[in-house]
């Protein structure tokens, strides 16, 4: 890629127009125009410097976007619920689970601490595939299947509010190597997804319960394996 294209691509990543970008980084507008059009070649360090600073902008924007996707509230009994503010997968039909899997790969390498127990839960490379293609996922229908697809955007806060820790030894042959010695832990968690009326206005939130399945590895760490048994609760929905 030519240097002029590199500079232009870096600017476009920030979402700033040329004037805003120049004001933010103290670059003369005419100079920026000539760099982007190829009339002048910027010094070699300029693209590297801009790429460094815009990575910080990208990270901050991504964190803000993730935060805006959810809120953690308490229901009438004082139990925590993660509320999804906007559905990533709006249609119940034709959910692209490969897209869901790609979204989940953003979590790989993360570590989340559960508030109730202070357990540290790591998210490994096996999680995205298991979440999207497990027997549990394939067995889900209708609203529950749709809920699991959308829960992919709130994995970390669902872990954070998890409660009701239980243990079970490993009985599955496929996990002899990675869970034989320390077994499995399960936690309960809850989340809510928005429901809209025919005019597209938010009218309520439906609450779903789920079980978080954790594999206790021989390295001593606890790894998220799947979020399963997602089921709509019969309790009163949260009103808007």
TrEMBL record:
GO molecular function, one term: DNA binding
Transmembrane segments: none
CDD domains on file: HTH_XRE (cd00093)
SUPFAM superfamilies for this protein: lambda repressor-like DNA-binding domains (SSF47413)
Protein name per its UniProtKB record: Transcriptional regulator
């Amino acid at each position: 890629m030519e240097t002029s294209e590199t500079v232009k691509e870096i600017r476009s990543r920030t979402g700033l127009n040329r004037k805003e970008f120049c004001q933010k980084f103290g670059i003369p507008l005419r100079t920026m125009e000539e760099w982007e059009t190829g009339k002048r070649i910027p010094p070699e360090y300029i693209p590297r410097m801009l790429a460094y600073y815009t990575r910080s902008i990208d990270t901050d924007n991504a964190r803000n976007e993730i935060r805006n996707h959810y809120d953690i509230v308490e229901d009438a009994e004082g139990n925590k619920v993660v509320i999804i503010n906007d559905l990533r997968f709006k249609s119940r039909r034709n959910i692209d689970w490969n897209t869901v899997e790609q979204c989940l790969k953003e979590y790989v390498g993360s570590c989340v601490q559960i508030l109730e127990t202070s357990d540290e839960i790591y998210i490994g490379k096996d999680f995205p595939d298991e979440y999207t293609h497990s027997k549990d996922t394939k067995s889900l229908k209708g609203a529950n299947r749709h809920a699991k697809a959308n829960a992919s955007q709130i994995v970390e806060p669902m872990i954070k509010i998890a409660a009701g820790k239980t243990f079970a030894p490993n009985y599955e042959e496929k996990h002899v190597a990675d869970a034989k010695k320390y077994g499995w832990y399960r936690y309960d968690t809850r989340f809510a997804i928005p429901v809209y009326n025919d005019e597209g206005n938010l009218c309520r939130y439906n609450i779903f319960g789920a079980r978080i399945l954790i594999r206790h590895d021989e390295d001593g760490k606890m790894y998220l394996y799947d979020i399963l048994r997602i089921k709509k609760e019969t309790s009163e929905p949260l009103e808007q």
